[in-house]
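Bench notes, afternoon.
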Amino acid sequence: MRILIAGGTGLIGQTLIDFWRGAHEITVLGRNKDKLLPLASQVRLVTWDELFTIDAHGFDVVINLCGRNISDKRWSEKIKADIIASRVNTTQQLIHWLTLQKATPRYFSASAVGIYGLQHEMNQMYDESSPIAWDGLTHDFLSTVAIAWEKALKPAIDAGIPVTILRFGVVLKRWHGFLKKLAPSFQWGFGAVIGEGAQPLSWIHHQDLAQAVDFLINHPNLIGPFNLCSPHPITQKAFATSFAKALKRPLWLTLPKRVIKLLFGQMGEELINQGQAVLPSTLNAAGFEFKYPRIDDALSKELI
């Protein structure tokens, strides 16, 4: 299968490239060819400047994973605008490239479980049938980002391109992303429960993520939104307990939520003090089976 991955240098892109190595013909689309060079032995490299010189009919699948890291810096108004633009603009460019050539490969777009809104505790579960504030009248930035991202897909759907939306939970991979940020404090025995630790966390092991995307690619009838997260969302306290256990470290600290908000502002309030409890109902109904559905098994696999 001929697959174009836009945003292949990030955690999810690298996970998919490693998983598909030798099985498919992969092309990675990126801004900076120097940054792409480490991938040169594994994939074909293309820059955005070259995009409109490429035959769109040469791909069976296009996967867009582009987007500025949502947690790398405290959110200013400029950074929030950049976060949205980095997702919407790349989506618009890719769709324009496809529709200009009347090409209709399967199109996979990254999104996030943040589209369902924020919860202080696990008082309800969301899935693909849950209502979404498509009118844009949201009260949090995470859902605003995801809604703008998914609404940008409408021209592709209108053009008859089969669109599958990947709403990712937090991806767990050793020394990458979420685990990389938390590992130092937990390794030194300074991991903490945030507030009462009741805020939900929807997560997925990186191997399950790769298997799930592969499953969707191999089932052409599966289009629309899919939640890519474990069928067992947990609380922040349950995660912290499991993480400390996997590292064989104590968990004795509690960090007030007000400290998180003081340190990180709106980003801390939405990414740490609150969360989403989300189920992969559509993926389960399609017959996908998770290898690491439980947090203890997922973290043990990565950390022991």
